[in-house]
Design goal:
- Helix content is 35%, strand content 13%.
- The longest helix has 14 residues.
- It has a four-stranded parallel β-sheet, with helices on both faces.
- It is built from six helices and four strands, in the order βαβαααβαβα.
- By secondary structure, it is an alpha/beta fold.
Amino acid sequence: LVSRSDVDPSQIRIAGVGSAGLAAMMATFLDHRPRSVLVDQTLVRYASILESKKYSLKLAWFAPDILRNFDLPDIAVGLSPRPCWIVNGVDPNGQVLTEPSLREQYSHAISHETSLPATLRFFVAPKPDSQEIYLQWLKNT
C-alpha cells in the first residue's frame, strides 16, 4: 500500500473479522505503519483454547510455541499508543463474550501497577450495530 501513489501511508488501518482478526492484530504489531487495528468476532486468547474441550479455531491459525512468549492480549496492549478496537471478542467456541469478560481477559496482559491503555477499546454489539462501530473507528483513529 505504501508504494501506491493513491494511498496516504499515514491513513493505513487494518481490520480483520473472525480468524482474519488474528492476522490483522499480528500484522499491526509487527509493522509500525498501520495507525490502528480493529478485530471483530476474533478469538480473545489462545490460552483459552487450552482451557476448553472444544474449539472452533482451525489448525492453520495455531502458531507454534506462541504461548511460551505471549498471548493475544499481550499483542493488543503492546500496540499502544496505536488504537486497537476489539468488537465482539469470542471464546474458543465462537461465542461472543460480555464486555466485563473481555476486560478481565485483557487485564491479565498488564502489570498490577498499570491499567489497560485508553487506546484499547472493547465493544459488544449485535451485527448490524457493529457497522456503526466500524465507521466510528475509521473516523476517530
